[in-house]
Design a protein that fits this description.
With about 300 residues, the chain is of the alpha/beta class. Helix content is about 45%, strand content about 10%. The chain is globular. Bound molecules: zinc ion (ZN).
Length: about 300
Amino acid sequence: MTYYRILFGLLLLVASLSSHAALRVVTTTQDLAAIAEAVGGEQVKVESLTPGTRDPHFASAKPSMIRQVFRADLLLVIGADMEIGWLPPLLQSARNGKVQPGNPGYLDLSTGVPLLGQVSGPIDRSMGDVHAKGNPHYWLDPRNGVRMAEAIASRLSELDPAHEGEYRGRLADFKQTMASRLPHWSADLAALKGQPVIAYHKSLIYLADAFEFNIVDEVEPKPGIAPSAASLSALVARIRSDEIGLLLMEPHYERRSARYLNEQTGIGIAVLPQSVGATPEIVTYFDLFDAIVAALTSAGGA
Ligand SMILES: [Zn+2]
């Protein structure tokens, strides 16, 4: 009888411990992790599978990542084929039913934002790294950050209804911070409005949409395809004829082409962090835009 009582007591203890345990949230990128932390607070334990210093298109599935996915209660992904090269085998190896696509522990944030750059018609390899679902770099529009935070708060509330009030409260704070910062970023970038610029990769169309500048060309002749001597000289001609003053690129791309274009035309170069964690100072989603705006203004683009 006493054994049963002890056993019952232990079961109650385990049950109460697990109801207080934080939800394990695993994200494919640090941007998702930063938003999940802002909304989840102490109710979540968040880990990103990749660091913000790397090109988010590529990752190699390490055993530590399989363990992270295996233990996850919720997996947050960018989607729109961003992780297509590395996440499916990881999901398969991790054998965690909770976070398989279609289950409540899997949340693809691309489904809740308006995607730009949808390609219609047949797609083949000659077109470069294009995605039928649309361009996956949507976290670079701060307005999409709010949509992502809303989707994460809803899913956390669904998985952990006891703390819905906390999730909703932190979401409201997130939206308020965004509402107070966005006008300042727009004001700082006012001079860039309507200006033609060149981007290295087709990754900054959301940033351009948010702050109303025009990306008229890319250094990559096709997404994911390195520039050639011929494509670079065509770009030199275009920069001169269209009087394009600024080239934007992420830190993980080669700098030789940008230096060449700068030598030939005097075009300004702004190296923009593309993710939270790209530098140690960029800890929150708001820090990311502070850093992007600072890089753009110091490059003389605004
Ligand atoms: Zn891309």
